[in-house]
Amino acid sequence: MARLTGNLNRLKPAQLDRLKKLGQRKVRPEAVVSQEFARQITVLSQELGRQIGVLVDRQGHILDTMVGDDSRIWIPDLSRERSQRLRGIRLIHTHLKREPLTEEDLMDLTLLRLDAACAITIDEHGLPEMFYCAYIAPGQSPGYELEPPYRPGRLPEDLNERFALLDQVFRRFEDSTRSSGGRPRAILVGVYTPAMRQKRSPQESMDELNELCNTAGVDAVQTFVQNRNHLDPGTVLGSGKIKEIAIAGVQQNADTLVFDMELAPAQAIRLSNLTEMKILDRTQLILDIFARNARSRDGKLQVELAQLRYLKGRLSEKDDNMSRLTG
Q1: Which of 25, 46, 131, 152 is most deeply packed, by most CB within 10 A?
Q2: pTM for the whole thing?
Q3: Domains of the chain
């Protein structure tokens, strides 16, 4: 049975029951969404004054039903879904303000590695008005392919063929971006304030970080450098740069971000939640190198203890209901 999550406050029992019944339905696998299902979701969305979304797998089963506010929904944590780079899930949700797919929608499509994202606008009678769809495009910039808007009754019904082709494209993409020996692929990130630049050249520091990665058995595939007057207390970087880096991670088939600084535990957790990538800082990287090179039993134990002490504050469960925002 599909999970029901999101903004459920002040909903009537009958409305909750209708939402639960949505999750028991099945969408035709070959279509983004059927006309009947689209009508049910838009009528209920207008009645509630809230966006409604569903996550659908390739067999047409609804995995999650989500309720948001009038401008966005919250996508739950997807870590339980299939572990391949593509999740085999598409997002279908309503837009109450008659706008096409938003930047947040397209970011979720790319960063969550969804098959597709579809926004349904609603007319004055609560019925589907327009369908806006985008599909993930591995290895391409900006990481997705936008379709022209569709009117009701004109949605293509070729998803099976499209997804089969998508899997082939992604396999070729992974083959072309796979590092030798199965080494992790990482993006290096340097963020520098004027005071930090006075102490050391960013170029020199990033060159050294690249060498540390090589010693640690990590392939550095791309580098980002940002100069800021002040570090963001929550994420170090600005939100725009984080999105740019996260998309680059998908395009480069990289699963790790390495920061040229020491991160606070809360910063590392926040960055991991935003990018869905493993986060390392310079200190962790150096500890990993020591761990790789330790030979004696005592030496290995000392390094492991140092790693555990450093990681102690970084262990946290991801929020199961607020993993991603979409508009």
Answers
A1: 131
A2: 0.76
A3: 3-176 (no CATH), 180-293 (3.40.50.11060)
